[in-house]
Amino acid sequence: MALAALLVATLGTACGSADSGAPEKSKTGKEAGAAGAAGAAVTQAERLKAAQQARVVAAKKWGLAKVPLAAPAAPKEKPEITTREGFEVWGGDELPPVFTTVPTEDKVVFLTIDDGAEKDPEFLKMMRELRIPYTAFLSDYVVRDNYPYFKEMQAAGVTLNNHTLNHRYLPALSYEQQREEICGQQDTIQRVFGKRPTLFRPPYGNYNEDTLRAAKSCGIKAAPLWNAEAFPNRMDWREWDRDLHAGDIILTHFRGREDWKGSMPDMIRHVMKTVTDKGFAVARLEDYL
Cα separation of 15 and 19, whole Å? Predict the structure, then answer.
């Protein structure tokens, strides 16, 4: 309301200062273009200011220690994604890359959430109000009892990706069995949510050549794993330095008090404190792939 009042006052001042008795001098095309660009810049600045003010209010409401940092604009040129050293399989050059970090100099990390067991409405509200982007990797066996929950998530801009039908240990299965798990979930997500995923995360992070061949056969382009895992009361790390790095992918799960010492909003408060304290913003993973 304050911002609206300021705009009304500004418009009123401009109208009151015009000389109604003098003919208006027409602007040249160059002058009009400059005025339009200046107006657009002011409008964009006002939008950014309003968004930041809303973020401050939301951070206080949801009990965050600090206001989350805003991510930079999505890169115009996407980084080249390759399989992380040590994560290769035989014949992997033509298969979807497996990676834990996106190569970028931007001070960003990516939040990803697996399975779909916990369906906390407060989590959806919190993430929407804080405008924190995340990517979901869904397993149908825990999602199918409440598809509308994930449709609401999708409507808020979250991409729904593949975590298999039944969350089985894939390396123990035949190629055909793996293909049924992966491609079956591709078909389910497309049927229920209207869009076929391009990202796939194998359950437990375990895979073999058959896994990636099966994934590729039904439209998967990449297999992001993770470099850190978030809980309501701690972070687990893959790297020896136990720290975040630019482009790191963070894993967490749809879990609640039955499995954790806290709720999903508790987990978000903890992971965002870690991320923000270290000077990172959370960006949208799909913007970098």
Answer: 9
How would DSSP label each residue in 18-34?
S-TTSPPPPPPHHHHHH
Contact at 8 Å (CB) between 89 and 210? no
3-state secondary structure of 202: coil
Listed residue (152, 158, 166, 71) closest to 113, CA to CA: 158
Name which of 20-24, 133-137, 162-166, 205-209 the model is least confident about.
20-24
H or E segment at 14?
A: helix 2-16
Q: How many CB atoms lie within 10 A of CB 117?
A: 17
* Predicted local confidence at residue 30, as pLDDT: 54
**Above 90 in pLDDT, residue 73?**
yes
Q: How many CB atoms lie within 10 A of CB 77?
A: 5
> What span, in angstroms and rounded, lies between the C-alpha atoms of 72 and 79?
15
Taking alpha carbons only, the member of 140, 135, 236, 148 closest to residue 180 is 140
Q: What count of other Cβ atoms lies within 10 Å of the Cβ of residue 94?
A: 8
Q: Tokens representing 161?
A: 């990706």
**pTM, entire model:** 0.84
Radius of gyration of the chain (CA): 23
Contact present, 253 and 117 (Cβ < 8 Å): yes
Asked whether the beta carbons of 138 and 175 are under 8 A apart, the reply is no
Residue 265 token pair = 């909003």
